[in-house]
Amino acid sequence: MSSVVDNTEKRTEQGVTGYSNCNVTPKCNITENCNVTKGATPYTGVAQNITFDDVSSSIQQLEAKGSKVSTKSVRELLSRGSYSTIFKFIASYYQQKHRTEENLRLSNLNEDDCLRLAKQIVVLAATGNMQFCIQKLNEEKTQYEQLKASLARTIEDLCDNNDSLSKENERLNDELTKSQNSLNLLKDKLSENAVEVNKLRNELKLHENTITDICKRNEEKTAQYIRQIEELRKMIQKPK
Description:
mainly alpha; rod-shaped
């Protein structure tokens, strides 16, 4: 007994005569037990691309027969198309089907169900908003703690600098006090020296006056001695 032969690939070889009752072109050399659907689209000499509608129709046929929908089963039913394209259209079909069923479910809701769904949406939105606010508050709190720590370090550094400046100010004040004391001592010494100088000037003036008087007396005595010498000279020079 002959087994069923898959001529899906062989039938693509053009110019080969095959089973006369098969309307699939190009013909293959399979003469019996062919698994290719005889009602498939005839070959026209131009590659025929599958569409989303082709895949959708195939899926509906398979589901109506109770067959498993897969890329391979759709490909066998269509007898054409790449597996990647078929897989993409199958995924799109079930996505659209899911959205359609969901829309139908929502459209069949009564007023109470709509209110309950609306409340759930509001609660979810409020919860999401609350979570977002909490997240923002936590971020703000973290930034606040970081800023607080930074300000605390800055204040500590300023306090340390203030202590250093206070110590330096105290040192400068001590040096200034010492300098002022030294200046006062110098002023006092200068005042004492000024008094001493005035005293020395007065004494010098007294000595100058004394010297002037002495010189004057010496000049008078010198003049007197000169007169006496002249008189003695004259007395000596007189003839006896």
